[in-house]
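Sequence in, structure out.
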Amino acid sequence: MGVVYEVVDREHDEHVALKTLKRLSANAVLRFKNEFRALQDIHHPNLVRLGELFERQGKWFFTMELIEGVSFLEHVRADGGADGEADSKANGLLRSHRGDRPGPRGFLEDHAWMIRAACELSRARGEPADGSGAWASKARDLATVTMRMFVAADGRPFDTREDDTTLFIRACSTHDGATPSGASVLLHALLDLFERTGDQAVSDSALAVMRWYSKAIAESPLGAVHATHALFRMLSGGIPGVDALGVERARDAAAPEAAMARSEQEPAVEIYAPEDRITLREGVPGELTVMVKVRDGLHVIAADPGEGEHASALTPFRVRIVGGGGVTAYADYPAGEDYGVEGVGKIRVYQGSFDLRIALERTGEWTGRPLLAISYQACSDTECQRPVTTELDIAIDRA
């Protein structure tokens, strides 16, 4: 975990916040760097501005805008709640609010996540499980508003409100990727609320949404993986009436794809590098060798997968630069080994571990924050995962 101090930036003559790590470990430093890199180039009125990431005597730090206020625990322990609570009961949530200027109105996902957050706060504060606590009541009120504003009579959850005039069509998203759809978040929010309150009306709402969602789950359990997870929660949690949905066949069909979804959450490829930064000078290429380890039971498509329709439909292994420009990456890719069945088609793949030599060269104007990344597609003997691009924890500096 990190710790934050108030310090003086003498170069700019201003007070800033300085974040550092309490304990140093390879994993903690990696997460610390990723936190900074993910947010550094994002600018929004409701987000803290980040400054610089630097290292001194083996310790890592980054600076950020200093915000005056109270701690999170002081905020949630305060009696009452957020300003405008009565208005939110009637009109829903706003995405932001500054002074007298209300921001855009919240979408389905905003309401669903806030219901889940209120349920977690109810649990963290030890409120009774009968739903009588303050945070459980807030979650129940917001769930009522959400169902009224976003969910049709047949249980269909829409991404936006019915009276939203800024959109040409009213979307209803069901596909789950790395980010879940608003509809699947709503399912989990209703299940969280039912666990906190035991309210039959809440479970009926969850059943209505699941009844509409069940077709998408039956067609592609993996494509609606978070909703599939909600279905499993309903089956294992004894939600009254869930068996009447006729979901047993969907549950059996979903098992292999759900296992594949869990497999995708584990990294198929691990990259080990001997250093964590490389410096590039004009006209002088930089070089390093990394070890690539493919998880047992999987293979990744080779850089040159071969010819034919089977090879062209897959994503080859590639080293690339992301997040900036002015740097080009080259690699000495191994040939790979043949994989496939005669008469059907063969491709070349990588399995196990191998060394990969990478060369970096400055090729133009330096822009952004160039990062070294590897793209690949992992497959088992039965199916392939989605293509993945992984950033390596190797800083690229210019001399």
